[in-house]
Design goal:
Length: 222
């Protein structure tokens, strides 16, 4: 391995050197190019993944073909669905695909379960991580169930503006998949926002023209 566990996951900063040694011995580094399907629904879970670089998107597909993003995995993070499958011997219940070229550290399933029995710190890390990400997934389900779509789109745009600037390179379908709704609904609401001069809708991107009013609208419609 070319990276220390503690550098990748600060949780292990004070770990016993034995944990680091075993990590170096048993971990496998693998590269996945953009658009690769890492796991499909029904796949067996044979490895515990930790992202070294890049982004993996985990999502569900409905019977009608509509996608809903559950979460994204970035540097130093793992996949709670994979963890759950490893602990319960079930199959992967979603789809995981690479959004940005990835380097992934893979730990064999048997190795990670052995570590959880052998090292209390690994056991603590796995369950702490499960709890944290599960809270985010529950929050997503609450948003889908209880919030109006226009509120959720306004929130999406505000967050994107704060992290990426006024030009947001997302298609209507990508936004719909992230929010768990239909592309037609997203297009209609974005068109309404455009009529209000909050943004300009371009091919493959959105340009925020009045961020202050967009924020006020978010406050108003809540």
């Amino acid at each position: 391995m070319q990276i220390k566990l503690s550098e990748l996951i600060p949780f292990f900063n004070e770990a016993d050197p034995k944990i680091e040694n075993e990590f170096q011995q048993h971990s496998i580094l693998q590269k996945f190019p953009r658009s690769t399907f890492v796991s499909m629904e029904g796949d067996s879970c044979n490895y515990f993944p930790i992202i070294k670089s890049g982004i993996i998107r985990v999502y569900k597909i409905s019977a009608s073909g509509q996608e809903m993003t559950l979460y994204r995995i970035k540097r130093g993070e793992s996949c709670i669905l994979t963890i759950s499958c490893l602990l319960s011997n079930n199959h992967f219940p979603a789809v995981a695909s690479v959004e940005e070229d990835c380097e992934v550290i893979l730990i064999p399933a048997k190795t990670i379960t052995d570590w959880m029995s052998k090292f209390a710190l690994w056991n603590e890390y796995v369950y702490d991580y499960l709890a944290k990400v599960l809270i985010n997934v529950i929050s997503l389900l609450e948003d889908i169930t209880f919030k109006r779509v226009d509120i959720r789109i306004a929130e999406y745009l505000v967050k994107a503006f704060l992290s990426k600037g006024k030009i947001i390179k997302s298609t209507h379908q990508e936004i719909a998949s992230d929010l768990g709704t239909a592309r037609e609904v997203v297009s209609r609401i974005l068109k309404d926002f455009e009529k209000q001069k909050l943004l300009a809708v371009k091919r493959g991107q959105l340009i925020i023209e009045d961020f202050s009013s967009l924020q006020k609208k978010l406050t108003y419609i809540q």
